[in-house]
């Protein structure tokens, strides 16, 4: 499976943790599907810009396999009038939290 | 930590430039060193010195310049991506026989090798795509 190709990602025995940042809404192409296929181990997902639509309860089930590792950007939820409408499986972070997530991850990969 | 930002979205076309500028401000506010913003693909339009957006809208070009002035962030523009989009500094303009120029300091036209160096040298490289 394609998933397994990504799972072997290691450096000197230590697994690299990646923060995946998605800025496209779930109905725009297959970006979110591709991200979820590529994610592995302790990787995290952050939705920004139109990507925040993916955190709405009706659309959030596809991220159900990532408990505690789903984040959505507060500023972009708020500017779309969606703050507090996100699924409870998503943690809301502000722009400072975004920076903090990039500190914690070894690498940040943006999907667009 | 030492950060760099790669910006590939054109200003006012997508949210990328606004997101990148907000992220850049937050990086500095958290006490990190933001080494560089690298403008690539349509992101090079962020360096247009003639940009004149309506006064009640954020002025992205001035926003980048302020970041440079206040925090010494270098503003590097891919020269190949810029030239083919009509973005060039005075030196390139005279080299190509053009009457005007569209890029000036603190933006600098550089080769793509600079981006490779940023990826190698900085602790974090964060991309904002279109």
UniProtKB/TrEMBL annotation, chain B:
Xref: SUPFAM superfamilies: DsrEFH-like (SSF75169)
Molecular function GO labels: sulfur carrier activity; sulfurtransferase activity
A GO-annotated cellular component: sulfurtransferase complex
Annotated InterPro entries: DsrEFH-like (IPR027396), Sulphur_relay_DsrE/F-like (IPR003787), Sulphur_relay_TusD/DsrE (IPR017463)
Entry's localization field: Cytoplasm
Keywords annotated in UniProt: Cytoplasm, Transferase
Cross-referenced Pfam families: DsrE (PF02635)
Superkingdom as given in the UniProt entry: Bacteria
GO biological process per UniProt: tRNA wobble position uridine thiolation
Family statement drawn from the similarity comment of this UniProt entry: Belongs to the DsrE/TusD family.
Protein name: Sulfurtransferase TusD
Species name: Halomonas halmophila
Highest classification ranks of the organism: Bacteria, Pseudomonadati, Pseudomonadota, Gammaproteobacteria, Oceanospirillales
Gene name for this UniProt entry: tusD
């Amino acid at each position: 499976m394609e998933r397994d190709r990504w799972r072997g990602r290691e450096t000197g025995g230590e697994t690299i943790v990646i923060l995946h940042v998605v800025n496209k809404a779930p109905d725009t192409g297959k970006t979110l599907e591709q991200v979820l296929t590529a994610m592995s181990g302790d990787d995290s997902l952050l939705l920004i810009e139109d990507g925040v639509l993916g955190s709405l309860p009706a659309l959030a089930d596809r991220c159900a396999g990532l408990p505690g590792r789903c984040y959505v950007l507060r500023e972009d939820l708020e500017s779309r009038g969606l703050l507090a409408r996100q699924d409870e499986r998503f943690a809301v972070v502000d722009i400072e939290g975004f920076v903090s997530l990039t500190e914690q991850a070894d690498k940040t990969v943006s999907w667009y | 930590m030492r950060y760099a930002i790669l910006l590939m979205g054109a200003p006012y076309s997508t949210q990328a430039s606004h997101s990148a500028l907000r992220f850049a401000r937050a990086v500095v506010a958290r006490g990190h060193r933001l080494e560089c913003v690298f403008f690539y693909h349509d992101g090079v339009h962020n360096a247009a010195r003639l940009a004149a957006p309506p006064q009640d809208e954020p002025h992205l070009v001035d926003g980048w310049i302020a970041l440079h002035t206040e925090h010494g962030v270098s503003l590097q523009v891919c020269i190949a991506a810029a030239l083919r989009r009509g973005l060039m500094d005075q030196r390139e303009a005279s080299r190509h026989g053009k009457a005007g120029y569209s890029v000036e300091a603190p933006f600098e036209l550089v080769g793509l090798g600079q981006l490779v160096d940023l990826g190698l040298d900085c602790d974090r490289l964060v991309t904002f795509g279109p």
